[in-house]
Amino acid sequence: MRTGSGDPRPTSAGTDPQPASAGTDPLARLLATVRPPVEPARTFRERGWWQTRSVVHDLYRASAAHPNRTAILAHRVRDHAGTPTVRVSYAQLTGYVERFAHALVALGVGPGDPVAFSLPNRWEGSALFFACLRIGAVAVPVLPSYGARDLAAVLEAAQPRVCVVPDNWAGVPQAEVLADLAASLPWLRRRVVVGDAAATGALDFADYFMRTPHERHDRGAWLRVPTDLADRVCLIVTTVGLDNAHRMFLHTPNSLRAGVRSPDVPHRDVTYSAVPIATLPSLLHAVVGPALRGGTSVLQDVWDPEVALDLWAQGAVGQVYALAVQWSELVSAQLERPRELGALRRALAADPSGTSTRLTRQVAEVLRVPLRAEWSSPQVGAATTGSGLETVLTAVDGPEGLFRVRVRGPSTCLAVWQRDAGSVRLVRQQQDGWSDTGDLVRVDDTGQIEVVRRAAGEVGGLFLVPVAEIEDHLLVHPRVAEAAVVPTPDVEYGELSCAVVVPAGDPPDLVELRTYLRGRGVPPEHLPARLELLGALPRDELGEIRRAELRDQLARRRARKP
Q: Which residue among 53, 66, 120, 407 is buried most deeply as judged by most CB within 10 Å?
């Protein structure tokens, strides 16, 4: 792997480069005005949760101190070179960050300009994220399995100058979708494609970003790191719902830093995430955290539990972040072919509501590590591993024991750019730093938070379906008495959505339900891929669905099938 030449260290002196769109783009101007409230920011700095430097400085410091240390161990299924696993050193990573940063500047990207990229878990996505931070641009990671409707919603809201997509991923022709959308996105200057770019007339990522040494074109002109970078918006995390309802959560390098500052994660630890790094908790665990600690990130572009366990053993992985359904598959794969996983010390489940007592026991017995369910959200990132997060639970009208969550802390986003049908509004942090997540939760006897219902319009877990909205649509069907939408494992895509239905009379079949949902305006990418029929859904004393118990029930049913 080649790297750029010259001194890659970022500097903060000198005049900031000016964004090409300054003064003409309302969203860019808006992002430039979003700053943290004064008093909370002062407190966070005094307590050491925030710094004056950006996380990109930590990456370059780690590279200078240990240039040959492995920064990323990446496994990819679709590597045309035939090498499934690639090691990227810190020197190589920062070399490519420099190259990608210069490439973005050459395309007219400047401080405050959004850059969207829809890539699987590969090292190029990590380098592109840090390249955005390097020049003060705003990274907009997009889940690579988004269909046309969801991709259009994100691009219309974020208004990126550049968008990077694979030619095809998970059966979605991303390059064609982006080309079709381009005419309606006047702010989009460049389409960049990983793979076959010529077919859609896009810029070839390999040729332009990886093979062209942009950093050598002007040896005397080093890119300056914009001043006050630590408090500028650097990341937009998006959630998409139906009826044109979606939100963008605006984060800074400091809120990201605080989101992974955990005293029980050792320096130079090796971290693996099975969840797409386009989601905030996975980005924190698998990209930002390792860079801050001088550790190693282990990435896998296509989910496969057998490959994942082999990577853990090969890379001496110490921390793993995965969905409950993935942990279940990992347990089965380890039982079938045991590996030596002596370095594994920390196991995190991404969805507390789906993490059952049975699964926790299985992980402890088979993988020899305690499984900890992590409450997270696009607003606060990884809440159980971040620093100084305060929560206030306010009882809601209705069933006893349900609470609405307000949060305050250094990992909380600065603002939420919220688009509902027919309106757009910016919801800033209050001056005292408190933000309303919109989540409904309950608290168990041990004090752990269990998410009962996510905020309206939010995507649930890894499978990209607005769960509550699809369930509401299903319940209107005349032959559906009860309905739930849960994830189910899939060999090719890792995870798909499954409709679990209690029939009212003659049971409907999957084709009928999908046709019915399409008639109600549900886009194809949100339709359930599978259907399970039950006599009743497991519910608690408040009438809420016990989703962890339901998943266990479906897993046992799958295990009995030949």
A: 120
